[in-house]
UniProtKB/TrEMBL annotation:
Organism for this UniProt entry: Halapricum hydrolyticum
Protein name per Swiss-Prot or TrEMBL: Alkaline phosphatase family protein
GO molecular function: hydrolase activity
InterPro entries on file: Alkaline_phosphatase_core_sf (IPR017850), Phosphodiest/P_Trfase (IPR002591)
SUPFAM superfamilies cross-referenced by the UniProt entry: Alkaline phosphatase-like
Length: 548
């Protein structure tokens, strides 16, 4: 069935972490195109999900299903105590462009997170966040064609930290989208910008750079609109962003105080995630491409660091851990200076860590927003018998609900069993206990630091309210978007094509578009998983503070 009419019917612009509280701080003339969409259409806050993080939230948005169905809960996917960075093969449900393909519509998708490696559909896809540099695109060979057409294209900013690095990334997204829209003549377009989030992790409170990024994004949206003149336009974000007003809660220190977490100093324990900061692939290129002198220098440095790691690890087992050294350096004002000079792998080798096999419960990753029980029969070295699971979990939930911040206020808005938050066949992959910080004003940490509370590692954090705006021929701007959620975007976009939503979608068509019902779609049968074998992805997540 060919339902194509030769024009772009609907375009979605995704702005990671965009929200009205950020946009309202920008000068009036900074984002004229975005403001025109708000003024001529309809807009409102868009309620995100728990956890409100990029790799889980965007799949929820583009599948219309909660993580219990699509299966991505965090930046990492765990198998026992082992982990891997998530990618598109971890998503168990179809994105909207694949559903549109089934109804004869063609799509161009650029920079949407967690889309690598891509699957086949009618159209083109350039993967975004969580993909390696120079990713495989759809169709195969498209990346080389794209670079020939528009010049260098990077999934991540160039790492210089300069404003120009961010804006260059923004410009390349727009150039790629316009080229592919002309090349493939799509019915549907999806163009995402990630650096609207990245800047708050890289350069918090740098409003000059934040403004420059939003100006660049606004320009690219205007150029995209001029190039493809879509009938309908959506602007969406996966979550909001705002300053932290609370404290850092170190869940594993809290659990250690109860006797639930056991720790080990040096050697094995919590995965040494941040050692990728010092990887030979940090710059994005293989060391064999470096000049011989630089290769020799790196080999000498690697030998030196391994020797130092062994020394520090031995010292840690004797009680002189990185945390104790860090506390001493903080008292004399040298902690940050030394941290910059010493390789992260060396620091980690002497760090007190969670001893997973010998612990009752633990936080694996701070961005999972919860606690995992070490269950017999599920974890490789479980210690909690299945018959005691509910008793142990209920006790932990009760204890966590009683936690107060140092000022005496409740730390958590909610502490819930996972089945109260997620629904679907992938729920078993979630944490056992979900933690929702009050207003997301508190920073969760999985690191062992010797105290339960501290100053937040980052001054900004994700918030639950993103934004949604829409205008166009299929949009009734007289109707309210109040109550819109992340899960409503997919069925609403499908409705602009008169395509029924998947019956299993958790979201519903927003009132601004006429719904066309639901239907059953065949099981996607996504059973193959691949690993993200690229150190630059892990390094980027570490540098942004997502992996501790």
């Amino acid at each position: 069935m060919d339902t194509r009419d030769g024009g772009v019917r609907t375009v979605v612009f995704g702005l990671d972490a965009a929200c009205h509280s950020v946009l309202d701080r920008l000068p009036e003339d900074a984002v004229p195109t975005l403001r025109s969409v708000f003024e001529t259409g309809v807009d409102a806050p868009l309620t995100s999900q728990v956890p409100p993080w990029t790799p889980s939230a965007w799949p929820s948005l583009y599948t219309g299903m909660n993580p219990g169905k699509h299966g991505i809960f965090d930046f990492l996917s765990f198998d026992g105590y082992e982990w891997d960075v998530v990618n598109a093969t971890h998503c168990r449900e179809r994105p909207i462009w694949e559903l549109l393909d089934r109804h004869g519509f063609r799509s161009v998708v650029v920079n949407v997170p967690v889309t690598h490696p891509p699957t086949a559909f009618d159209g083109a896809l350039v993967p975004g966040y969580m993909a390696p540099e120079s990713p495989t695109c759809h169709p195969v060979g498209l990346f080389d064609e794209l670079e020939d057409a528009i010049g260098s294209y990077r999934v991540y900013p160039d790492g210089s930290g300069d404003e120009s690095g961010y804006t260059a990334a923004v410009s390349s997204r727009g150039a790629a989208f316009r080229y592919l829209a002309d090349r493939f003549d799509p019915d549907f377009g999806f163009l995402q910008f990630q650096v609207t989030d990245t800047v708050f992790h890289d350069r918090p409170d740098d409003w000059e750079t934040i403004e420059a990024i939003y100006r660049a994004v606004d320009t690219e949206i205007q150029l995209a609109l001029a190039a493809c003149d879509p009938d309908n336009v959506f602007v969406v974000s996966d979550h909001g962003m705002g300053p932290l007003a609370g404290v850092e809660f170190r869940a594993n220190d809290f659990l250690a105080g109860r006797g639930d977490v056991r720790t080990v100093a040096g050697g094995d324990g919590m995965p040494t995630w941040s050692t990728v900061r010092d990887s030979e692939l940090k710059s994005g290129g293989d060391a064999i491409d470096l000049p011989r002198r630089e290769q020799a220098t790196r080999r000498v440095a690697a030998v030196r660091d391994r020797a130092l790691e062994a020394t520090v690890s031995t010292a840690a087992r004797l009680g002189l851990t990185s945390q104790r050294i860090g506390h001493a350096l903080e008292r004399v004002g040298l902690a940050e200076t030394v941290a910059r000079a010493v390789p992260t792998s060396v620091i980690r080798s002497g760090t007190e860590r969670v001893d997973f096999p010998n612990s009752v419960a633990y936080m694996r990753s701070r961005t999972e927003c919860g606690i995992r029980l070490n269950l017999v029969g599920r974890e490789p070295d479980g210690v909690v018998p299945p018959a005691e699971y509910e008793v142990v979990r209920s006790g932990l939930i009760a204890a966590l609900r009683e936690v107060e911040s140092p000022d005496g206020a409740s730390l958590f808005e909610a502490v819930l069993p996972r089945e109260a938050v997620f629904e679907g066949p992938q729920t078993e992959r979630a944490v056992d206990i979900v933690l929702v910080p009050a207003g997301f004003e508190h920073f969760l940490s999985a690191a062992i630091r010797g105290s339960v509370f501290g100053r937040p590692t980052e001054p900004w954090n994700h918030k639950m309210d993103g934004l949604v705006a829409a205008r166009g021929e299929a949009i009734d701007a007289s109707r309210s978007l109040e109550g819109a959620t992340l899960l409503d975007i997919a069925p609403t976009v499908l409705a602009t094509f008169d395509v029924p939503a998947d019956r299993r979608m958790d979201g519903t068509v927003l009132r601004i578009v006429e719904g066309v019902g639901r239907q059953d779609y065949p099981d996607p049968q996504r059973t193959t998983r691949t690993t993200t074998d690229d150190a630059t992805v892990e390094q980027r997540l570490t540098d942004l503070g997502y992996i501790e």
